[in-house]
């Protein structure tokens, strides 16, 4: 039986996961390569999606009933989504060997999946495959669902987007400004360089939240207050944004990365603003909109062909990594090392 490498969860961290030292969060193991049944395919992981949400799947003492995805158990492979290649098919008429698919492969070299649960990908000439995990993948769907459906942004709205230089945020900026035509789009990101790039994507302005002047800068740019806030980060930036919303303002609560590695979450000191300004805060999970994946990817691909949105190398940070380096590359999310989608390209 051939064997393969996989990363399993060694323990559930209370703060920043560790990849070395006395008590690392993950452990590299070997396992048998699984065999597909007649309804399954064996796939080889090529490109891993790096998602901040993976951190929320390894929280200690989480009540599974309060999570949207099953928590990873200690000793089990780390959950992950990927672009993979079919290397053996139980039903070649339904899915041929060599096909590319999106699959929940976990941090394993090989995995088996029911063929009917796999999303086949047709490569587009001139477009790197990594974009099927980002600008034309699940993070794009997240941005589209959040800004268009969840908070229903319109041409009359001023929109603030945090995490604006990340995979989701960079698509929200483009969809809001270049597809919906929102009146004004204000990005928030962690470096001046990222901010200038977010402005190139279409934001009217982008503010660096790591500068001492951030609060004054945000207050100045949101003079008159705003209708919509797309929140990728939670914490103190959300708290500040609660004070910058118009009456009946709408907030798309997409994620709270600023609190994912904190045992002592911060924020929401200004929650009374929600009451006094009659704010609508809408939490959402992209999986509830997954049935729209094909339609949305087709619409965004068309928008890219028409030159309305950018889907190029600036929209992703592809890190070539040996299998042994997968956790290290994932951790870059929490250092802000990525612009656009952080993709791990597994190399020998
Ligand atoms: N609701 C859903 O269905 C759904 C789906 C996908 C993603 N999400 C959420 O959306 C958010 C963005 O995810 P993504 O996949 O697009 O990742 P991403 O934005 O591409 O990558 C994470 C970025 O977060 C920023 N960041 C890291 N630590 C931070 C902190 N302490 N405070 C503020 N910003 C911080 C960094 O950018 P800077 O350099 O700007 O700090 C980093 O590049 C996450 O909260 C994620 O959980 C939700």
From TrEMBL:
Residues 5-120 form the Oxidoreductase N-terminal domain. The keyword Oxidoreductase applies. GO terms for molecular function: oxidoreductase activity, acting on the CH-CH group of donors, NAD or NADP as acceptor. CDD domains: PGDH. The keyword Oxidoreductase applies. This is Enoyl reductase (ER) domain-containing protein. Keywords: Oxidoreductase. It comes from Aspergillus mulundensis. Residues 168-300 form the Alcohol dehydrogenase-like C-terminal domain. Pfam families: ADH_N_2 (PF16884), ADH_zinc_N (PF00107). The lineage of its organism: Eukaryota, Fungi, Dikarya, Ascomycota, Pezizomycotina. It comes from the Eukaryota. Gene3D superfamilies: Medium-chain alcohol dehydrogenases, catalytic domain, NAD(P)-binding Rossmann-like Domain.
């Amino acid at each position: 039986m051939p064997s393969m490498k996989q990363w399993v969860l060694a323990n559930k961290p209370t703060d920043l996961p560790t990849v070395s030292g006395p008590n690392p969060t993950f452990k590299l193991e070997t396992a048998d390569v699984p065999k597909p049944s007649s309804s399954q395919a064996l796939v080889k992981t090529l490109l891993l999606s790096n998602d901040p949400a993976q951190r929320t799947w390894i929280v200690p003492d989480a009540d599974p009933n309060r999570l949207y995805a099953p928590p990873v158990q200690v000793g089990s492979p780390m959950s992950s989504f990927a672009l993979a290649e079919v290397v053996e098919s139980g039903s070649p008429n339904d899915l041929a060997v060599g096909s590319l698919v999106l699959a929940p492969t976990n941090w394993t070299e090989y995995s088996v999946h029911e063929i009917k649960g796999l999303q086949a990908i047709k490569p587009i000439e001139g477009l790197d495959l990594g974009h099927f995990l980002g600008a034309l993948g699940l993070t794009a769907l997240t941005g589209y669902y959040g800004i268009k459906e969840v908070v229903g942004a319109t041409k009359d709205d001023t929109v603030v987007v945090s995490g604006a230089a990340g995979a989701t945020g960079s698509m929200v900026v483009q969809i809001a400004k270049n597809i919906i035509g929102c009146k004004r789009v204000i990005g928030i990101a962690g470096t001046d360089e990222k901010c200038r790039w977010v402005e190139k994507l279409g934001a009217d302005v982008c503010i660096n939240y790591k500068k001492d002047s951030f609060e004054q800068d945000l207050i100045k740019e949101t003079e008159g207050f705003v209708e919509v806030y797309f929140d990728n980060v939670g914490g103190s930036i959300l708290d500040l944004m609660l004070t910058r919303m118009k009456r009946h303002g709408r907030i798309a609560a997409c994620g709270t990365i600023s609190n994912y590695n904190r045992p002592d979450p911060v924020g929401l000191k200004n929650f009374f603003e929600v009451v006094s300004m009659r704010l609508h805060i809408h939490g959402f999970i992209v999986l509830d909109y997954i049935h729209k994946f094909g339609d949305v990817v087709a619409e965004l691909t068309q928008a890219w062909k028409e030159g309305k949105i950018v889907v190029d190398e600036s929209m992703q940070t592809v890190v070539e990594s040996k299998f042994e380096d997968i956790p290290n590359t994932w951790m870059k999310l929490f250092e802000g090392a990525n612009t656009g989608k952080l993709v791990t390209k597994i190399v020998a």
